[in-house]
Amino acid sequence: MTVALARLEPDDLVVDVGCGGGEAIREAAARVPEGKAIGVDPSAAMMRIARELSDSHAGRKRIEFVEGRAEKLPLPDASATVVVAINSLHHWENAAAGLAEVMRVLRPDGRLLVTDEEAEPDKFGHGDGDLTDPARVLAIIKDAGFVDVCFSKHTEGDVRMLAVTARKDVV
């Protein structure tokens, strides 16, 4: 559902921070035939699994997995057009530092999409800290300098998801 919400363009360079087994990266690669999809995760074991699961994917030449943390993304400045964080923001050691890194790697006018399951009404489903509160998530994203920050709810079958979209300003 997140990849569909990202409204990817054929030449996007998509980064999934906290990609786990890489399911979203494989889906993104199928939607960016002229672009690239990069998964970042701090777990070497998850990176190994993601690579193995992606070996037979039709878009494998456009898929890359790199070990790293949100707070120190192993990517060049202004290299990504879209960054997604799916069920991962609450795992970041320091959300503000991670969002500063996302801002660094996004190109001007690049997009951020943070999604999480909705376990309780209007609560991000993972974690138990202040990042379960959508208002807090919106505030830290705005504080990081993102613009056009918006909150939305989505349902597909039995899955309920909350999303925050934002953009890096052109200036």
Mean pLDDT: 94
Low-confidence stretches: none
Write the CATH homologous superfamily.
Vaccinia Virus protein VP39
Q: Give me the strand/helix succession.
A: HEHEHEEHEEHEE
The profile of the biggest β sheet is: 8 strands, mixed
* CA-CA gap between termini: 30 Å
User: How would you sum up the global shape?
Assistant: globular
The total number of structural domains is 1
Q: How many alpha or pi helices?
A: 5
The first-level CATH class name: Alpha Beta
Structural class: alpha/beta
Helical residue percent band: 25-40%
Q: Based on DSSP secondary structure assignment, what is the total number of beta strands? A: 8
Q: What is the gyration radius calculated from CA atoms?
A: 15 Å
Q: What is the beta-strand fraction?
A: 25-35%
**CATH architecture tag:** 3-Layer(aba) Sandwich
Look up the CATH topology: Rossmann fold
Explain this structure to me?
The chain is of the alpha/beta class. The protein has one domain (2-167): Rossmann fold (3-Layer(aba) Sandwich), CATH 3.40.50.150. 26% of the residues lie in helices and 35% in strands. Strands 1, 2, 3, 4, 5, 6, 7 and 8 form an 8-stranded mixed beta sheet that branches. The longest helix has 11 residues, at 44-54. It starts with a helix and ends with a strand. The mean pLDDT is 94.
